[in-house]
Amino acid sequence: MITGGSQGFGKAVAAACVEAGADILLCARGAAELEETCEWLRARAATGQRVVAHAADVSDPASVSRLIAVAQEQLPTFTGLVNNAGVYGPKGRIEDVAWEEWTRAIEINLFGAVLPCRAALPLFRLRGYGKIINLSGGGATAPMPCVSAYAASKAAVVRFTETIAQETAGENIDINAVGPGPLNTRLLDELLAAGPEKVGAAFYEKAVQQKANGGEPLGKGAALCVFLLSAESDGISGRLISAIWDPWPSLPKRREELAKSDIYTLRRIVPQDRGLDWSKS
Length: 281
Fold this sequence. Notes:
The chain is α/β, with parallel strands linked by helices and about 280 residues long. It is built from ten helices and seven strands. β2, α2 (about 30-40) and β3 (about 50-55) form a beta-alpha-beta unit.
């Protein structure tokens, strides 16, 4: 099941999953675009492969409950969840943006990952197996002035991922966060439309350059998602993995070493990490 699957990166993940032979359920708020994407995917699916759609608001508990019920009905072997739905939210300084827009972005980006996890995990536990991917972004690992709701929510998604990975340890359920890299999707277009006055000159110029050079291919992040949904990645959990910077195809042979470390996790930097000793007053 892929949320936010009707366009952009979610659509790319859906296409990669179909190519890998998976049955999929796409979710998004816009029913018309969702069905259009499903028709596009069905044309690429093999005979007997299921591609279904259900419009839902992943920030609403009742809507998510119905969505998981549809997943159980339409995908008899449902064991994979990709929480991709997300927005940048309001753009501007925190004291200037509309509070309702700021909290709405938190609801979509954070609650929109937590609620599907909360609803799917009991089912995965009963089946004794499950794979969950939560989409991260640049906001998880670096400050992003003027898009503070996005930055805060994505950092929260990663810490939530690490926490739930520990809650499900030993249950054959893997949950990871994915950083797909800078992508040329509708989110980038939103930044460009907002202009340097709202997003800051430096951030705007970076967006302009990204638009010009094409950004990172959607397929890189999609391939990472397929890997993390597959049995090949069993036992890899609680990590934030970059599609473009990390050598993720080699992780299976480093599984035990990775499990004993804090590699690919969020952590606080202390003076010793930078070769400094501040223990003496």
